Amino acid sequence: MKPIFKQLIADFQEATLPRVTPRDVHFPELPSTVKKAYVLIGMRRSGKTWAMYQQIHALLNNGVNKKHILYLDFSDDRLNGLTQDDLQDLLLAYYELNPEVSPDTKVYFFLDEIHEVASWEKFVRRLINTDSITVYLTGSSAKMLSKEIATTLRGRTIVREIFPFSFKEYLRHHEAHYSENLSAHQKAAMHHTLQKYLHYGGLPETLNLPENLHRELLQGYMDAVLYRDIIERYQVSNTLALKQFLNHCLQNSAKLLSINKLYDSFKSLGYSVGKSSLYEYSIYLNDSYCLLTVPAYHLSLRKSSLKPKKIYPIDMGLITAYTIKSDYEQAARLETAVFLQLRRKYTDIFYYHTATAKKIDFLVVENNQFFLYQVCLSLNDAKTKAREIKAVLEARKELPVEKASIITLEDDYDEVIDSYTIEVIPLWKFLLD
């Protein structure tokens, strides 16, 4: 394998790196005594490889010699059938091609789709233990899902989740710049850009894609997730039920997923599938970063686990690609955009129902502080406004709420009730905060 490794290494050294839109991902500089691998995880086509390129650009801009950087894509067909023993040839090939690089020289190994090699983790652990080598890894396939790369290395990783483009990154990609104080013309332009972002989402390959190809591309992504990350990996035989499960979730984004109700619905439609299989499908899709779930908040973990979870796709564009209910889509995309922005920052995100069944869309718990977020298209309707505010006020009586916000498409003011302030904020400002 050494000649093939040499060819691939030489190809990378000679190639011009693609320019990338800067993502908001940070790799902290670690002291030499801390030995970790940086792991990029996320759904297929979310931009993990391009985040690697971004880090390579950053190293080059900081004066690192390109010969001190190795990038290898293990999904390359020339590397089919690699074994753990073959990986030693990778080190030999690199140092033979670069004899001026001593074992003490600081080098950077970017190993894309490393899971394609059986028992790869032994080789990577050896690299991590080498003082002069910094390791970056990605992975997402039927052989090993992204999350499992971090798990397999047992605490030897710094993990960075790669989501589709945030709105800030989306604006950066399109070279659009807005300040907080917008003129009427800028507000109109911002609203137009935001609507496109909500409709088509932020998966990298869709950003410059013709509209007529959007649905086909995203449905192709989902087929790849289903067949390569789930059906092949878990030997799912009931592929029709799995596809219908995914369709149901995407067509009911931002809603509660009741497995019992879905089981009854599938049964009435003639699908032969057990409840346990439906629960498993939910876990599989979550592990592949295709669908994310939000549990109910309750002081009792057992009671929380018994309640249905809310479901959100990894990208708003998936809602567009799988549904045709335009009015519902707009509200679902808005709530999904808010959730994804929160998910980029926080891990403890819940929904909450008050004692009188008033609904709180998102409850974030951070450092023992509680933050409430309600989401609706507009507060122009008096009944809608009263409903949303009443839910916040009831939740505030039951929980030690630090701050409450209502996020809409355009409203921007503070609602003060009995000296308590509820922030009403437009989506664009929330997404750029």
Provide an overview of this structure.
The chain is of the alpha/beta class. Among the domains are: 2-161, Rossmann fold (3-Layer(aba) Sandwich), CATH 3.40.50; 346-433, no CATH class. It has helices at 2-14, 48-61, 84-97, 120-128, 146-152, 167-173, 184-200, 211-234, 239-251, 259-268, 275-287, 301-306, 317-322, 326-345, 382-398, 427-432, and strands at 37-41, 69-73, 107-112, 133-138, 157-161, 256-257, 291-294, 309-313, 349-353, 359-366, 369-375, 401-408, 413-417, 420-426. Strands 9-10-11-12-14-13 form a six-stranded mixed beta sheet, with helices on both faces. A five-stranded parallel beta sheet has the order 2-3-4-1-5, sandwiched between helices. Helix 1 crosses helix 3 (84-97). 34% of the residues are buried.
Set down the secondary structure blueprint.
Layout (H helix, E strand, L loop, with lengths): L1 H13 L22 E5 L6 H14 L7 E5 L10 H14 L9 E6 L7 H9 L4 E6 L7 H7 L4 E5 L5 H7 L10 H17 L10 H24 L4 H13 L4 E2 L1 H10 L6 H13 L3 E4 L6 H6 L2 E5 L3 H6 L3 H20 L3 E5 L5 E8 L2 E7 L6 H17 L2 E8 L4 E5 L2 E7 H6 L1
Parallel strand pairs: 1-4, 1-5, 2-3, 3-4, 11-12, 12-14
Antiparallel strand pairs: 6-8, 7-8, 9-10, 10-11, 13-14
Helix pairs in contact: 1-3
The side-by-side strand order for the widest beta sheet comes to: 9-10-11-12-14-13
Name the structural class: alpha/beta
CATH topology of the domain at 2-161: Rossmann fold
Unreliable stretches, pLDDT < 50, 5 or more residues?
none
Look at the structure and give the CATH class of the domain at 2-161: Alpha Beta
How far is it from the N-terminal to the C-terminal residue, by CA? 49 Å
In CATH terms, the superfamily of the domain at 2-161 is P-loop containing nucleotide triphosphate hydrolases
Q: From the coordinates shown, what is the CATH architecture of the domain at 2-161?
A: 3-Layer(aba) Sandwich
Characterize the biggest β-sheet: 6 strands, mixed
